[in-house]
């Protein structure tokens, strides 16, 4: 993969790496998850099926779309 494309992918994915702190953003219904959460679950064997992985990933995207306004960089990255 060309280096430029890798850098662009890292920039786009970076807001999704760590779970958001729902307490500090005052959104108690926010389900805390990030790509790092999925990575940990994979390493621990907790994502037993591809569907588990997909469901976690879709939750990250759903959170970002729901809790970030349209046209914001995070919303658009989804």
TrEMBL record:
Biological process according to GO: chromatin organization
Gene3D superfamilies for the chain: Bromodomain-like
Keyword Hydrolase applies: no
Record's keyword terms, sorted: Bromodomain
Keyword Phosphoprotein attributed: no
Residue intervals of the Bromo domain: 8-75
Superkingdom field: Eukaryota
Name of the molecule in the record: Bromo domain-containing protein
Organism, scientific name: Laetiporus sulphureus 93-53
């Amino acid at each position: 993969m060309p280096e430029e494309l890798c850098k662009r992918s890292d920039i786009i994915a970076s807001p999704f790496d760590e779970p958001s702190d729902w307490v500090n953003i005052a959104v108690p219904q926010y389900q805390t998850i990030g790509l790092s959460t999925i990575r940990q679950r994979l390493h621990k064997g907790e994502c037993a099926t591809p569907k588990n992985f997909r469901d976690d990933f879709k939750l990250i995207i759903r959170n970002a779309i729901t809790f970030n306004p349209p046209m914001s960089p995070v919303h658009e990255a989804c």
